[in-house]
């Protein structure tokens, strides 16, 4: 997550936006309210619409779909509030990895505004930030997986792949251990080499 985030207010001018994008080398600038809460996003593509459609002087495009017409409407914008896409897609700073991935997949933006408990902007998150979790050290993955494993289960990790070995009393316990290991942040896959003494799942189905 990028914590050094440049943001602008609702009334920031068009040139203020261009300056923020260029000086900080970013492609997205959050728009925040006076309390620092994100209310929208402005991207470099939004700003470029000014030149693409000559400040809105061109006629409304008849072809190209809704996205092109949306860019045309933004071409006449003079402030961040007029140019931004709202509402801003947000995610809590303490949200689990899988929640962040789903939010990114559902959002129309390539970035999410990370907010604290007061809904104030504290960072920006992209797929690049989330993917970095997949390079978590094996030792850290093993420590977390082992901490959540029932007694009798040994855990080893190589290249992010978690292998569970050992014997437990019930099949349900073994399957629960596998699911828990699959949820460990950074786990690439789980190899199930567990044995169990009694198949309680089949017994309950009869």
Automatic annotation (TrEMBL):
Task: Please report the stretch or stretches of sequence annotated as the CBS domain.
Answer: 1-59, 84-141
Keyword set, alphabetical order: CBS domain
The UniProt record lists the BON domain at: 127-198
Instruction: Tell me which SUPFAM superfamilies the record gives.
Output: CBS-domain pair
Q: Which InterPro entries match?
A: BON_dom (IPR007055), CBS_dom (IPR000644), CBS_dom_sf (IPR046342), Diverse_CBS-Domain (IPR051257)
Q: Report the Pfam families cross-referenced here.
A: BON, CBS
Kindly give the Gene3D superfamilies that the UniProt entry links to this protein.
3.30.1340.30, CBS-domain
Q: Is Cell cycle given among the entry's keywords?
A: no
Family annotation (PANTHER family): CBS DOMAIN-CONTAINING PROTEIN CBSX3, MITOCHONDRIAL, OS02G0818000 PROTEIN
Protein name (database record):
CBS domain-containing protein
User: Species name for this entry?
Assistant: Amycolatopsis dendrobii
